[in-house]
Write a structure and sequence with these properties.
alpha/beta; globular
């Protein structure tokens, strides 16, 4: 299985306290031979759209963009209400670090667990919280 991750960052390539879909750009990495390998940076075309913050339309456009890129793991400081839509296709990973470089060793330690989630729970992925240790929780489908 090919594993590709999208890091939700600002223009300075730092994680911000924003929902995944509000990131200014996405850093795309692939997981290969137990390493995170940078692939490309993609500007988030939805940042300037007039669509409502948590609209289903915005979620579907973002899902299409990420699927085209072969992404299966989303990495962000925050996720909004649309996490209920995206966790059907992507493993959400919430982080507490600001810099992707700070996150690499933490993420590398947890990738086996995240890989297992991808293989075993397709369509109903759990949220991984890497802020203080590692916690895996179900995404609340209500609301």
């Amino acid at each position: 299985m090919k594993i590709r991750l999208a890091f939700a960052v600002n223009r300075a390539e730092v994680f911000e306290q924003k929902h995944f879909g509000e990131a200014e750009k996405f850093l795309i990495y692939k997981w290969e031979a137990n390493q995170l390998v940078f692939q490309q940076a993609i500007e988030n075309p939805l940042v300037q759209t007039p669509l409502e913050r948590h609209s289903p339309e915005k979620a579907e456009l973002l899902i299409s963009l990420l699927k085209e890129q072969g992404i299966n793991i989303l990495v962000s400081k925050q996720f909004g209400k649309n996490i209920k839509r995206v966790n059907a296709l992507f493993v959400p990973v919430q982080v507490g670090t600001s810099s992707p470089d700070e996150l690499f060793p933490i993420l590398k330690k947890q990738m086996r667990w995240i890989e297992e989630e991808l293989l075993q729970n397709a369509g109903n992925y759990k949220l991984f919280n890497l802020q203080k240790g590692t916690i895996k929780t179900a995404v609340n489908s209500k609301n």
